[in-house]
Design a protein that fits this description.
It is found in: Cytoplasm. Its EC number is 5.4.99.5. It is an enzyme of class 5 (isomerase). This is chorismate mutase. By secondary structure, this protein is mainly α. It has one domain: Orthogonal Bundle (Chorismate Mutase, subunit A). About 50% of the residues lie in helices and about 0% in strands. The protein is built from nine helices and no strands. The protein is globular. The protein starts with 14 loop residues before the first helix and ends with a helix. The C terminus is likely disordered.
Length: about 230
Amino acid sequence: MPSLNFMSGEDLLSLDRIRSVLTRLEDTIIFSLIERAQFAHNARMYHRGAFKELTDLGFNGSWLQWFLKETETFHAKARRYTSPDEYPFTSDLPDPVLPPLSFPQILYPNKINANPSILSFYTRAIVPRITRRATLALATKKRANGIVGDEESEDDGNHGSAATLDVEVLQSISKRVHYGTCRLFFEAIRLVAPTCGQGNSFQSQNFWTNPPILYPTFSIQTGKHLKR
């Protein structure tokens, strides 16, 4: 996944650098979605308590939530979520086993975390649409083998592979959303357009969720990027 090296000593708020990272993140998201679309919907992966194997372990969430928890637990121990551009989907993660890094203080602190909304929208709206073709192909194959009713579609049994791709997509979307809309992006704008914002304050909750119109010069630059 594309990342920004906060310890490089380079200009972290360069608009060109930020635009490059955002573009690479978008490419990662697109290719990950293409890979996820190769598998059926596997809807039970997103239902709480649908896997007896997990409830026997005392976990009452969904298969994807468990997959995220296990993945992010490991990553948290390697201090992934101490980085300013990383947001976990799981709460109550363990402390890192490595000593903390001293990241440059370039961002205003905020408590915005869009991950709950990202997870809900991804599982409810995105996955069913991108997996429609694979799901229909699965149903056709099952009907040809005499399997009909609830068992004829939805699930191809590839729960591990599908969840691995789900985690990749979700983490990429999360970084793209937080990186591009709430953090470095607008801090870079503040430097380019110091009078932009409400009273010059980028600490306002309303500013982050409803940013003002940007300066024309910057809008032209981003407009060119979006039309590529």
